[in-house]
Structures are given as structure tokens and as C-alpha cells.
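Course assignment 3, question 2. Fill in each field.
Student: A.L.
Task: Predict the tertiary structure for the chain below.
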Amino acid sequence: MSDQRSVTRSDLVAYCDAMLESSAFQDYCPNGLQVEGRNQVRRLITGVTASQALVDAAIEQGADMLLVHHGYFWKGEAAPLTGIKKKRLKALLENDISLLAYHLPLDVHAEVGNNVQLARLLGWQIRGGLEPANPRSVGLHGELETAQSGAEVAASLERALGRMPLHIAGNDRPIKRIAWCTGAAQGYIEKAIALGMDAFVTGEISEPTVHSARENRIHFFAAGHHATERYGVQALGERLAAHFGIEHRFVDIDNPV
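Answer field:
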């Protein structure tokens, strides 16, 4: 390990903040450094959510920093540091591990963002934002290279993500124009409908989404919140490893939702 390169915590955080333009977002949580650990970063562990299982894995693997999409301190949650919040933070602080988290900035980034990375994984051609007037549209829309049936799109999602999506078939027509937004964006189906899309893909589903898909005759796919958001943080970790010459490992903590 003596010849391994390192970067200061502040330089790595500044690089991420600038690249992701984190200060430009009004988000549900603080973006950037959430827990301050040791000054030098040699080993970076990435994951989707800073659960206890991921924190434990970072400790076991000798991480200097943990980088996630879902961090801590969400709006509306109870403020006291008790229960699982205390346990998670205590483990990070006792092991001098920094926690770096980016939520919306990591969803929308044009290179390492969750939505762009999902499109690359599936081979979807990006045509624009799901919110055309918003330069930082969270969701995207595009086209499949060739039209596919709903069953074929479901099968391609299963192959890519390792889990069968829940498919609500709003019609029996083939799919060519497709919109997507990773995570819990089932409400964005209305934006896909407004743009005349054949299908909308996201992570989760709510009871009203079924009726909306059927009555508006649009295919809807709930492909998994965790499953659709594994790729942005990996891409960011790989970018940091290449830029700073540090070690990066992605740890996938299984989550069926």
C-alpha cells in the first residue's frame, strides 16, 4: 500500500461538488460531505444507500471514504441521533470514515448520472429531458433502436438488472418511444403521458400508477429503486479512481425494492 496514491478529502469533495454542480439543486437532503473522516483518501467504497450493512462492509474493507446516492439527514425525518442513526454514525466516526452523498445531482448528471447510465446499460437512445423546459430534468426520454413488445422490454430489463420488473401493460402496441426516471419516480408517468411516450420505466410503483397506465394506454415498468440506481455511483467512483489514482470498489447490498 505504500506506493498507492491518495488525495485529500477536501480535494476529492471539491472535485465532486464542482462536477455535479451540487450547489445548484434544491434537494431533500444535503449533498456533498455528510460525515468528516480522515484527511487522506486512498480507498473509496461506493454503494447505493448508506445502510448499516454498507457501513460495515466499508469498515471491513478498510475504506477511507464511503460514497453513496442515498445518505443521511433527509428533510422531514426526526432529528435526534438515536437508534439506527446513532449506530451508523458511531461506526463511521469511530473508524474515521468520511461519508459523501449525492442525490439529485447524481440522478441528472449528463455523464455519470443514474438516468444516463441506465440508458447506456439498456442501449436506449436519449432524445431529451422528461421535463423539456427544465435544463436539469431528472428524467429522460428517448427511443429504442427497434420497436419491441412490452414482454421484450421487460425481458431486457431483467437481463440488465438481474430482476424481473413489474409490467403494467396499458396496451398491446409495440414500444418505440420510451421515458424513464430511476428510483421512486412513479408520479412522473404523467410527464411521459404528456410527451406521448409508449412506455415509462422507473424503480417503484404506487396503487394509482396502475390505473394511470391502463387508462392512458401506456406501458409502465417498475424495475426496482435499488436496481435502477446502482450505476451512477459506480460511474462516479470509477471517474474518481481514474482522476486521482485511488482505489475504488463498489459494494452491492441487495435490496428487493
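Instructor remarks: The mean pLDDT is 97. The first strand starts at residue 7 and ends at 8.
Grade: pending
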